[in-house]
Amino acid sequence: MIKNQFDKNFDTTENIIVLGDHVNDVDSIKNLSHIQNSIKIGFLNSKTLINNPDDFKLYEVFSRRFDIGIMNDGTLNFVNHILYDIFSHTIDFKDQIGEKSNSSQDL
Fold first, then answer.
1. Looking at residue 99, which CATH number applies to its domain?
2. Angle 50-48-71 (CA atoms, 0-180°, nearest 5)?
3. What's the number of domains the chain is made of?
4. pLDDT at residue 77, rounded to an integer
5. What share of the chain is helix, strand, coil (3-state, %, to 5)?
């Protein structure tokens, strides 16, 4: 089996965030067996959910496939907050285990 470029780039990645606006976008990671943690964020741009039964069915599918749904042309603010939180904790954790740069000690 020939690996595609996406799989090659993520051979050792254990954590991933998937952003998508189609229910099948979450399938992009299904063959990455080494993924231990994932957050799947879907963007559903339907403004007629209550009035259109087909759109409500789409909402139900999105709810099952994605961990988080952002509705009606929502912004990326929520995604930015998640990334900020992840990276700020990663930096704090590295500081606690001694991976912080010692450049301040050189002063």
1. 3.40.50.1000
2. 100
3. 1
4. 93
5. 45, 15, 35
Q: Which is more confident, 50 or 63? A: 63
Tokens of 14: 């254990």
* Residue 62 tokens, joined: 């999105």
Tokens found for residue 1 = 């089996």
pLDDT of residue 4: 64
pLDDT tens track for 64-98: 999 999 988 888 999 999 999 888 876 555 555 55
Tokens of 103: 């450049």
Phi, psi angles (nearest 5°) of residue 16: -150, 150
Three-state SS for 74?
Answer: coil
Nearest by Cα to 38 from 22, 49, 27: 27
Take residue 100 and report the two structure tokens written for it.
């912080």
Residues of the domain holding 75: 5-106
Angle at 44 between CA 38 and CA 49, to 5 degrees: 135
